[in-house]
Design a protein that fits this description.
- The protein contains 8 helices and 4 strands.
- The chain has 184 residues and is of the alpha+beta class.
- Strands 1-3-2-4 form a 4-stranded mixed β-sheet.
- Strand 2 and strand 3 form a beta hairpin.
- Helix 1 packs across helix 5, helix 3 crosses helix 5 and helix 7 crosses helix 8.
Length: 184
């Protein structure tokens, strides 16, 4: 909902990609892995790590006036922590919220709400995170370098996932979404 109480239009994949491209250009990022924590800090967002009770909370974004903090569950895997920072950056860039708390979610299926396509802001933040961690242009360049990219080859997926510092599951999902744009 916008501040006036009326629903806002969801952001398209192209709009989200454009926001990520601007963010990457502003911070002179042109290769993987993208240092999302460094970007957050350059955007004047403090990143704090703390063990969260239970395993349901991944992160939170708090913003008031000129202060912004991303809280990250330090108990999560490093790739998950990177995704959480990227996801919260998505909320910071795309949405005007004072506080946003994210519960645990899986890269492949997103969280329970966004996987059902009920909460557009969660879907947008997930797309933003995927685009930021695995930028479209960089993935396309990697695919062009690999003459015949074989999804069946675990080594190829593992190498790309390692290069981008994401899970293999996230890389497979991202490659599928990028390749789908080639067929349009």
């Amino acid at each position: 909902m916008t501040q006036q109480g009326s629903p806002r239009s969801p952001k398209s994949v192209e709009d989200i990609r454009a926001e990520v491209v601007k963010l990457l250009a502003r911070h002179n990022v042109s290769q993987a892995p993208v240092d999302v924590e460094k970007i957050a800090r350059k955007e004047n967002i403090d990143v704090k790590y703390s063990p969260f009770e239970g395993d349901t909370m991944s992160g939170a974004l708090y913003r008031m006036d000129d202060t912004a903090i991303i809280a990250v569950n330090s108990l999560n895997h490093p790739n998950r922590r990177r995704f959480t920072i990227a996801h919260e950056l998505g909320h910071f860039v795309l949405h005007n919220e004072a506080l946003h708390v994210d519960r645990s979610f899986s890269i492949k299926h997103r969280d329970a709400t966004s996987s059902l396509a009920i909460d557009p802001e969660e879907i947008e933040a997930n797309r933003f995170a995927a685009e930021l961690l695995m930028p479209y242009d960089l993935i396309c360049a990697d695919l062009k370098l690999a003459q015949e990219f074989d999804f069946e080859t675990d080594d190829a997926i593992a190498q790309l996932a390692s290069k981008y510092r994401v899970s293999e599951q996230a890389m497979i999902f991202r490659l599928n979404t990028v390749l789908a744009t080639f067929t349009k």
